[in-house]
């Protein structure tokens, strides 16, 4: 992988819009702006379970196949949006052979959501950076390697991106720190929440976003919801 205004706005001028495009999403692609807040899509917590989920393999499969997801938008803007992710394409990123995936957000109801971003991965599909059209450019301090296995109650750090205003890397903005936590939804499905926190150059926290995905015991990964609290935007997968 922030979001919304009635008209198109540069992500550099709108902090709420900006981090939507830092993806993942950002890692996975997933978020909530402002003070953190939980997504309205989360089901009541299920009992703690030792069921294992193959996150790294499942997410790699998700990325490798491309995807298209319809999203219901509510809050400051109401309507529909689509999230499309391309198949991985060989490129060179920061001097290294890499794979690029283009993510496109489109909405006729909420045009402020419209944007294109490119996410960069190494050969193992660990994220190494991102480039947002009309917005920021980020490079991971080390490839973002997802846990091979997770279970309800799992949590931890994923990694840190250094962020600049654009790909010239001449004007630094700060850092983007990603972490995750897992909760059981049922005996066969878990909810993965990716938290992304932005810090400015003096180390002050400027924004927190949360993205949610579901994973099954078969390793199938799908978008659940993006909750951007400070922008008052909730996007839930159909």
How many discrete structural domains? 1
Give the mean pLDDT. 81
Read across the widest sheet, the strand sequence of neighbours is 1-2-4-5-6-7-8-9-10-11-12-13
What is the H/E order?
HHEEEEEEEEEEEEE
Portion in strands: over 45%
Low-pLDDT runs: 1-48
Shape: globular
Radius of gyration: 16 Å
- Helix content percent band: under 10%
**End-to-end distance:** 19 Å
Main sheet attributes: strand count, strand direction, barrel closure: 12 strands, antiparallel, barrel
Alpha-beta classification: mainly beta
Tally of helical segments: 2
Number of strands: 13
Describe this protein's structure:
The chain has helices spanning 15-18, 55-64; strands at 67-75, 79-85, 89-93, 96-106, 115-121, 127-132, 137-144, 155-164, 172-184, 189-200, 205-216, 221-228, 233-237. The chain is mainly beta. The protein is globular, with a radius of gyration of 16 Å. Residues 1-48 have low confidence and may be disordered.
Main features:
single chain; 238 residues; mainly beta; 12-stranded antiparallel beta barrel; globular; disordered N terminus
Give the gist of this structure.
The protein is mostly beta strands and 238 residues long.
């Amino acid at each position: 992988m922030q979001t919304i205004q009635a008209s198109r706005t540069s992500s550099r001028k709108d902090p709420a819009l900006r981090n939507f495009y830092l993806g993942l999403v950002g890692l996975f692609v997933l978020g909530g702006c402002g003070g953190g807040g939980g997504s309205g899509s989360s089901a009541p917590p299920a009992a703690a379970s030792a069921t294992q989920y193959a996150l790294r393999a499942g997410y790699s499969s998700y990325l490798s196949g491309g995807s298209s997801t319809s999203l219901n938008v509510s809050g400051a803007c109401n309507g529909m949006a689509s999230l499309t992710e391309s198949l991985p394409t060989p490129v060179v990123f920061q001097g290294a052979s890499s794979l690029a995936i283009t993510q496109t957000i489109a909405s006729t109801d909420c045009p402020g959501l419209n944007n294109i971003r490119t996410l960069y991965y190494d050969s193992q599909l660990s994220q190494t950076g991102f480039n947002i059209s009309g917005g920021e450019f980020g490079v991971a301090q080390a490839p973002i390697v997802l846990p091979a296995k997770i279970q309800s109650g799992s949590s931890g750090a994923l990694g840190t991106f250094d962020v600049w205003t654009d790909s010239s890397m001449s004007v630094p903005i700060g850092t983007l720190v990603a972490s995750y936590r897992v909760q059981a939804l049922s005996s066969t499905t878990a909810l993965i929440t990716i938290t992304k926190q932005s810090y400015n150059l003096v180390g002050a926290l400027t924004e927190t976003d949360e993205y949610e995905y579901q994973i099954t015991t078969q390793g199938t990964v799908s978008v659940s919801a993006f909750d951007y609290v400070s922008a008052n935007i909730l996007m839930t997968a159909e």
